[in-house]
Amino acid sequence: MDLLSTGDLKGILDVLSFMEEMEKTIAEFYRVCGELWTERREFWSVIEEDERQHVQHLGTMKEIVSRKPQRFEKGRPFNIMAVQTVITGIQNNIAKAKAGELKMSGALFIARDNEQSFLESKYNEVVKTEDIEYLTLVNTIVRDTVNHKAAIDREIGNIRN
């Protein structure tokens, strides 16, 4: 049954809003890392920009769901409290980085954890749909996330060598 029939529209929009906030917070972490480790600023900048693009994609995804709720069904249950916990954790890591309590290697491990986290990799399960516009945006976010993890893994390898 679609989101209008089930009354799940608001809940799905709330989940997407929290995901949007999570992406903003991750982008902020990457921005701070780029400012701290200027020798790797370009690396951090590229993934920060992708995260900012994900925020825009999520805004568009919310618009699509709002315009065409009949084309969407609720996917797997999503725990908003878990998303809030992730956001708080990232905010704490931003504070640690700004306070000089993180080395670049630690920031890279945190970044990798962010990218491979359950939340980041499950965008395609929030709703069920055949809507191409929505699916294209989801697939872009998922593809970028996979690429970010690979790039971060390479950076970690460079530090260890």
Describe this structure in words.
The protein is mostly helical and 161 residues long. It has a two-stranded antiparallel sheet with strand order 1-2. It is built from seven helices and two strands; from the N terminus they run H-H-H-E-H-H-H-E-H. The chain is 77% helix and 4% strand. The chain has helices at 3-6, 9-36, 41-67, 80-98, 104-116, 118-121, 132-160; strands at 72-74, 127-129. Helix 3 runs antiparallel to helix 7 and helix 5 (104-116) runs antiparallel to helix 7. The chain has a single domain (3-160), classed as Ferritin (Up-down Bundle), CATH 1.20.1260.
Please specify the SSE layout and strand pairing.
Layout: H1 3-6, H2 9-36, H3 41-67, E1 72-74, H4 80-98, H5 104-116, H6 118-121, E2 127-129, H7 132-160
Antiparallel strand pairs: 1-2
Helix pairs in contact: 2-3, 2-4, 2-5, 3-7, 5-7
